[in-house]
Amino acid sequence: MLSIQAALDTLPRTPELLSTEVCSLDVSHNRILAEPIIAPENSPPFPKSLMDGFAVAADTLRMPPGADGFVTLNVVATLLAGQIPAVTLNPGQAIRIMTGAVVPEGAAAVVPIEQTRFDETQPALVSVQPQQLQPGLNILAEGANVTAGAVLLDRGVALHPGRIAALAEFGIAQVPLHRRPQVAVLPTGDEVVHYTQDPPPGHIRNSSQPMLAAQTLAAGAVPHLLHPVRDQPQLLADSIRKGLQSDVLLLTGGVSMGTHDFVPRELENAGVAKVFHGVQMKPGKPLWFGQWSTQNHTCYVFGLPGNPVSSLVCFELFVRPLLCRLQGLPDPPRHTARLTSPFSVRGNRPVCQPARLFLQNGVLHATPLRWTVSADLNAITSADGMVLLDPEQPRADDTQIADAWYWYR
Amino acid sequence: MLSIQAALDTLPRTPELLSTEVCSLDVSHNRILAEPIIAPENSPPFPKSLMDGFAVAADTLRMPPGADGFVTLNVVATLLAGQIPAVTLNPGQAIRIMTGAVVPEGAAAVVPIEQTRFDETQPALVSVQPQQLQPGLNILAEGANVTAGAVLLDRGVALHPGRIAALAEFGIAQVPLHRRPQVAVLPTGDEVVHYTQDPPPGHIRNSSQPMLAAQTLAAGAVPHLLHPVRDQPQLLADSIRKGLQSDVLLLTGGVSMGTHDFVPRELENAGVAKVFHGVQMKPGKPLWFGQWSTQNHTCYVFGLPGNPVSSLVCFELFVRPLLCRLQGLPDPPRHTARLTSPFSVRGNRPVCQPARLFLQNGVLHATPLRWTVSADLNAITSADGMVLLDPEQPRADDTQIADAWYWYR
Q1: How far, in Å, CA of A241 to CA of A262, rounded?
Q2: Does the model's pTM come out above 0.90?
Q3: CATH number at residue A346
Q4: Which residues of A touch B100 (CB under 8 A)?
Q5: Which residues of chain B lie closer than 8 angstroms to A163, CB-CB?
Q6: A368 occurs within a structural domain
Q7: 3-state secondary structure of A289
Q8: Contacts of B52 in chain A (CB under 8 A)
Q9: Which spans in B122-196 are helix H?
Q10: How far apart are CA A73 and CA A8, in angstroms?
Q11: Which of A190, A197, A215 is facing B80, going by the closest CB pair?
Q12: Integer Cα distance of B339 and A345 in angstroms
């Protein structure tokens, strides 16, 4: 049986990336860029005033000031943001200018209004202090932010709000994105019914499917919910065939060693090449992973355990990195957390223990949640991550450090 | 002018929560529960086998074992998951049982198959070791997880995938959620055009609106994009009136001291009660905040600065906590981060410096990004958070600790 690391190492490191689709920027939030974006023009596209004040001619900087340090200039125009300068500044002249307006030709600096002497009743004159000025002061030169042709954003980055702003500034309204991974979710088992159905005696509702659908959404992918299927080879085969049309197929249940655990056999009958079955971990030991490829389509297939916490953990540990890689993203980070109290686990397998993770004074802490099959609900409703604990290495109380993963992000 | 903390203190601490709407669990991911959810039944709803093996009668535990430690029982039936026991276990009897199946009456424990002596060619007999057994072994009692009537989830929690699983287990297909906050975004300014338009000379595209729309989505709210409006009082008044129908109205631009900064005046003309104008911070100094209330509707109004980084910072610092509170959520956490290199800021105002935040060895680090108006784009494309730096308190190199916030989460 593979160790966790050995199992992770079987995931394709650089799978063929999902194809590109062009989408409106308006619906691109959190999507992944499939191509680098080149700045199509200079930013800003014109020299821009950074202040409300007065643009002064170049000779102003060399003017000998009066005893009070000021020189007086003739105000020849007012420029609002959005207006085009109709005049060029000549020596001895100033133009009243607002933040964001185009700085006119001949201007060497913009003096903020509060640093001038200016009387609204005599708007044709303004006094400024030449010794306070340098060329370019309060002027954002054309292209100072980015010059046309520079790489604005690289491929493989997620379009968060700041990046959307950058694209909008250049009018890039259509963006090349990786198609979102399509993830089919197929619950199996004679005892499970769809969660909206009343379970007959001896049956339970399937809670893994809506959970995995939400995990899929949280991973930026699109869930496809297949109807729960009974433990009957032919029914299973039919549903598997449907699921293989997706990029990733997740089955739940039927992967243990019971007499009615038909999932591994039916997956192999369907032509899915087994990569591994069984991982030395708890929960998640029966995990099955394989790959189905035709000439122009690959589907990665996970047989997840039937217990919801096991499915959840296997999704976060194995499925999520694959979903990231299919879009050219790095794997979700593995962190180091300090346990809030000593916590030990029994058995002979490393344990992925549901935990509450939080930052305190800038240090990542984890409170492992007592998870047993009889305390499933508390663990999955309260946890937002997990820590990896090794039963063979009891730790001293003051060195309770463990690998940790956030869930759902 | 208010300090950052004084400005934050003016936000309503416990605003009237947004009304409740009942939604399908299938579309409830990341939504906020408006009412506590009570478990309507026991979980599990029946005593459940946790192993593939044999359910044994109660007397088995008291049987004197043979010299090899084993006793032999009669296998009277097989129970698969989803099947209802048709028999009761009598002394000396066992039932073959699969994981998830209902444990039959009279059974005291389930013995995993690998701990038995069992020959598939003689399926009517099984041998087990009484001394290895305790009552209830490998049986999950009815209600062991949760008993009917217990609080399953409290109000004000976000429905992450684990919580969705918990609700699905109980067949709770309709859930009471807080309505998502409706956020109108209104760009203003003579120089700005919608980002999909070609800007005439002297104009720029408005990049703040798609950015704020994405920030709104990331905060779990719904953006309403109003068309950019020119700096004309009547046009502004009309658009403000539309925007006030939302829960939150965000304007960008027009809040500084320029001759055409009409936003504060038009907001007050529209009946919005000013709470503050101006915060002792950089960027974000011209921030305006007010509240508009009628008998049955309140709209919180933010006049954000026109610069996109300023808008972004003000949203994360002021708007996002309010959006959380409207849904009964706690404020976004303020963390403590260690700066990766000495970083100082100039001026007389605390600076919200865009930064890259990351965990290294379990410690939160921040790399502040050189942000100037001429390096906007780099800061907002690379940053995923911000640190608060005080120009008046230069720090020693080895104590570069700062308050930090993640953006967009």
Answers
A1: 15
A2: yes
A3: 2.40.340
A4: 189, 191, 204, 306
A5: 380-381
A6: yes
A7: strand
A8: 256-259
A9: 161-169
A10: 72
A11: A190
A12: 36
Model confidence at A373, pLDDT cuts 50, 70, 90, reads low
Query: Is residue A102 located within the same domain as residue A71?
Result: yes
CB contact under 8 A, A210 and B408: no
CB-based contact B381 A163, cutoff 8 Å: yes
Please identify, among A277, A292, A326, the residue that sits at the C-terminal boundary of a domain.
A326
Query: pLDDT per residue over A331-355, tens digit each?
Result: 999 999 999 988 888 889 999 999 9
Residue recorded with tokens 């680090």: B365
In the structure encoding, which two tokens stand for residue A114, read together? Answer: 């509060």
pLDDT in tens, B343-371: 888 889 999 999 999 999 999 999 999 87
Q: Are residues B284 and B266 in the same domain?
A: yes
Q: Which value does ipTM take for this structure? A: 0.94
Q: Chain A residue closest to B217 (CA)?
A: A29
B128's enclosing H/E stretch is: strand B125-128
Q: Is A172:B134 a contact under the CB 8 Å cutoff?
A: no
How confident is the model over B308-357, as pLDDT tens digits?
999 999 999 999 999 999 999 999 999 999 999 888 888 899 999 999 99
Query: From CA B370, how far away is CA A145, in angstroms rounded?
Result: 12
Provide the domain limits for residue A215: 4-17+181-326
The domain that contains A172 carries what CATH number?
A: 3.90.105.10
How many CA atoms lie less than 13 Å away from B252 in the CB half-sphere? 31
Same domain, B272 and B315: yes
**Nearest residue of chain B to residue A166 (CA atoms):** B377
Which pLDDT value is given to residue A397?
54
**Regarding beta strands B335-339 and B363-368, do their DSSP bridges make them parallel or antiparallel, or are they unpaired?**
parallel
Structure tokens at A230: 């009974």
In B, minimum Cα distance to A140 occurs at B374
Q: How far apart are alpha carbons A335 and B365 in whole angstroms?
A: 13
- CB within 8 Å: A29 and B218: yes
Domains identified in chain B, total number: 4
Within 10 angstroms of residue A278's Cβ, the number of other Cβ atoms is: 17
The torsion angles phi and psi of B75, rounded to 5 degrees, stand at -85, 115
